Structure formats: structure tokens, C-alpha cells
Amino acid sequence: MTNDLLNTLTEIRHDLHAHPQIAFQETYASECVQSFLAERDIPFVAGIGKTGVVGWISPTNDEVATHDQTSGGGVALRADMDALPMQEQTDLPYRSQFDGAMHACGHDGHTTMLLGAAAVLNEQRDKLTQPVKLFFQPAEENGGGATRLIGAGALTEQIGGFAVTNVFGIHNWPSVAVGDLLIGQGPVLAGTDLFTLTLCGTGGHAAMPQFACDLNIAASALMQALNTIISRNVPPHEAAVLSVAGLEGGKAHNVLPGEVKLLGTIRYFNQSIREQLIDRINQCCDGMGTAYGCAITCNIEDGYPPTVNDAAFADEVSTIATNIGLNQVTHPPATVSEDFAFYAQHVPSVFVGLGADSPDREDENLPLHHDRYDFNDALIPLGVKLMCAVAFGEGG
Predict the structure, then answer these.
(1) Which one, 26, 37, 59, 363, has least CB within 10 Å?
(2) Residue 70 scores a pLDDT above 50
(3) Among 226, 225, 173, which Cα is nearest to 356's?
């Protein structure tokens, strides 16, 4: 990658950071992607899931191109474009210009890395051994944008004229040094669901609790019961999380509310544990409802399944990463979730973490979703190099 391209990509990354938009509203990023691809005569389809863009690059080698037409095999490289609904608190010259939206998860950097890979691969089409699709995806943050691309046929011949046999994705990873790569086989990120537990009963005057159902007491007991599920029901060798993150109840000092809600999430790595967690949540609701004389309803909002890396493809990517000089480090499966998981349910896929921490960033090595988080531009050339190496199917 030339210095001119790197400078261009850095400018694009800063521009994207300054213009963040949340799920399915990423018009600025989408138009930027479309313009970049069009300038390089890279074919694409836009408007998938409102703002998604899928481009493709075909080999110019006649023998390879003929083989691909009969085998139908190609790799997809994926980047997410959406921002988070939060207010940025930095003083960066390219800080968010949109109130209530911020690139606090580094998706501006992911999009930029894929644009760089697109430019390099397009210039070296004669070296490609397979066609490549470019997934610029909307709505990773709770929107499930991956399902929109899948539903539109991005994995099939319907878009680009060839099917996808593998999908590869990168996420910047704070707490890991730049140049280090997290890669694993099997479940690498957790599945997640959200729950809302609604307690209903007779409200009343706080001075006369005998005439009301004190839902705050019931909610407190229910919360304690929920927090025993992991320690007393999930086998110790299994990883799972259940967190109650919100309690919505009364707003007056002297009124016992007639409705209280508990909001929370579960995280898991296999389906049987998920089912066990949901069963126990429902049982706790039924039991506490009876014990405290109130009605408790449980609503589970399906989230993302676990992200499962294909073993054979992970081995291939691991070899490629070694060949291009990335240092691979071990890391336990993370309990965060990603809608990249949906691609892995259809074709063998691999999702990796690219270290984002640098000594020279001092206090800027912040966690994802922090209101002062900023993607580390040092990752741009590394991400481009890794994406291109995966597309080439070799170490460079």
C-alpha cells in the first residue's frame, strides 16, 4: 500500500468519524463507500438494508476466472458502518458533528480498512486466485444488519455472479497491543438475548402499604433470585452471564407503583445453556409472582447467536497472519456479541480481533463504547494487509 493511499484512507477515517450515523441511517458512510468504489470502477450494489453496499472484484486471470465460474467459490470481506447512539466527549479536530451519535466502537476504522483492501485488490486483480466480495454492512449494533445482506442474496450468485464460500471480518480490540491478533476456533464471541420482566400489581399510598402490592420488594427479591441462576444452575465449566442492567419503577416518594420493570441480558456460548437460562428466568418469575401476590411477565428479545469460527478456515487465516508478521495471542472467548455470527451460520467464517493499544496513545487506550474512544489509525495498514492476504489466500 502506497503512502498516498494510506494518507487518503486516514482522511476518510477521520471524515467518517466526524459524521457518524446509527443503525440503518448510515447514509454518509454509504455514499462515501459508493463514491470510493465508483472512482475505481469497482462494481457494487447499494441500498441493501437501506444503506448497505456490496461490491465485488473478479480476477483478471482467464484461467482463474473460468474456474470460478464453474466452482462458484469466492471470499467475502466484511466491515460494519454504524455508530452508537451516544454523545462524544473528545476534543478531536474530527470529533462527531452529529449530536447523539458517535463512532465509539471503531466501525469508522473497519469501513476504512475494507476500502483500502478494495483499492489494493482492484489494482492487483491479476494476482487473485478467487473473486472477492466486499460487505459494507449497516446496523451491527443491535440492528442485525448482517441478516439484511444475507436476505438480499449477498452470499449467493444473486449479487456479483458468484457465491461466497467464506466470510472474513476484523474488529479492533483495545487491551491488546497493535500488531497482535486474536484468533480462535469454535465459539469466539457470545450469543446474547435481552429480557424485560414486567411486574404488575395494586399500587397505592406509601404510607399504607397494607392496601397495596409492594412491587419494589418483589422486584428486589426477583433480582436476587436471578443472580443465583449462573452460580447454581449453569455447570462450572460452561461460561455464561446474566445481568440485570435496569430497574424502572416509581417516580414519587410516597407512591407505591403499580408496575415495575427489570431490564437485562444473558450471554452464552451454546444453545442448551441459552434454553436453560430462559427456562430458569421464567421459573423465577412464576415463583416470585406467587410469593409476592403479583403478576410477572417475561419477554425475551432474541439477539445474536454465538460467533463460531470455522476450524479449517481459522487455521488458514492463522497461517496467513503468521506469514505477514502478525503476532498471534491467545484469548478466552469474549462475552460481547456480534451479528457477524449470522454469516457463520451459513458459510465457514472467521472473525478476528486486531490489537488497538499503542504505548504512544497514553490515556487514549480506552475501552470500546467509551465516550472518548477513538479508533487507532495505526491499524489501517495492518487491517488492509490482513484482508488482502486472506483474499489472496496466501501470506502476501
Answers:
(1) 363
(2) no
(3) 173
